[in-house]
Amino acid sequence: MDFSVVPFGKPRGERADAVRNREHLLRTAREMIEEHGVPKVTMDGLAERAGLGKGTVFRRFGTRAGIFQALLDADERQFQERVLSGPPPLGPGADPVERLVAYGRARVAFLVDHHAIARAAIDRDEPALVGDASLTQLHLRMLLRQCAPMPNLEGVVVQLTAALEGPLLLVLSRPTPDAGTASEINGFLGDAWQTLIERLVR
């Protein structure tokens, strides 16, 4: 399956200085998140910390949500690279059932780890979409076709994609006093995904 159709990355023809500014701003935003948390990252604060003009930040990201959308985009590209060419079982070379389990576990971990950034990336006027469901659908469809024949394949792909990409996962991963650590959440959701896949294909 060719994932090259999935749009990622900076626009073609971007100037070298613009690329440098973008990468510098993203690195700076990550530093601010690590030090102070997502709520403390603002357009003005990012410009000051990065040593760039406010206009540069506004032109690059448009809104505060645009900062986090860019961070998610960069991390989605890295996730895609792990799926396409990383070591098995997430990457090529493993049994399709193993790859399905590994993909679900990795995707759960990605969404849980990025839940604060994903929430901040949602503009009030935009739909609440999280992650790249198109990649998940393509990948699940490819792997399920390599397993035993299955009725209603397309519907199953949609249902499994919803299990990984739906807003419910963000709600489950929101930190609360009784929600558990990120590792615990990754564990029980990942285990549930593995149970679902093994019951489905075996």
Structure write-up:
The protein has 202 residues and is mostly helical. 68% of the residues lie in helices and 0% in strands. The protein contains ten helices and no strands. α1 packs across α2 and α5 runs antiparallel to α10.
Give the secondary structure arrangement, pairings included.
Layout: H1 16-36, H2 43-50, H3 54-61, H4 64-85, H5 96-113, H6 115-120, H7 133-146, H8 153-165, H9 167-173, H10 182-201
Helix pairs in contact: 1-2, 2-3, 5-7, 5-10, 7-8
Summary keywords:
mainly alpha, 68% helix, 0% strand, elongated, 10 helices, 202 residues
Short précis:
With 202 residues, this protein is mostly helical. Helix content is 68%, strand content 0%.
Query: Tally the helices: what do you get?
Result: 10
Number of strands: 0
- What profile does the largest beta sheet have? none
Note the overall shape: elongated
| Fraction of residues in β-strands | under 5%
Q: How far do the termini sit from each other?
A: 23 Å
